[in-house]
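User: Modeling request: complex.
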Amino acid sequence: MDVIDRLARNLRRLRQLKGWSQEEFAFRAEIHRTYISDLERGARNPTITVVSRLATALQVPIGDLLD
Amino acid sequence: MDVIDRLARNLRRLRQLKGWSQEEFAFRAEIHRTYISDLERGARNPTITVVSRLATALQVPIGDLLD
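Assistant: Request completed. Predicted assembly structure:
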């Protein structure tokens, strides 16, 4: 599984673990909701600063999203 | 320290631990040497697929480069 698919799977799993909708997650990470949806479908190749914001919102290390 | 600075510091440290020049590292990661130099100066905001290739070349988890 490549890093984009790992990110998609981990984002969805960790978001749902928090009980957040994509809208809630988008608001917390200060990222557009459609971009969250694209990320969770493996349709984006984000930069590390975007992934860092996602990890901060989820309160996990970046490695938990990418490894 | 933000994620771009953490990447810069970790890349340089892990590359030097391997005893590689930037040229050697660029060849192994299949990335242009000047891009490696830019990354180590914190002058780039790479995508996760680029960081994944860097981690593979260094044989470390991506979290070791970004956390």
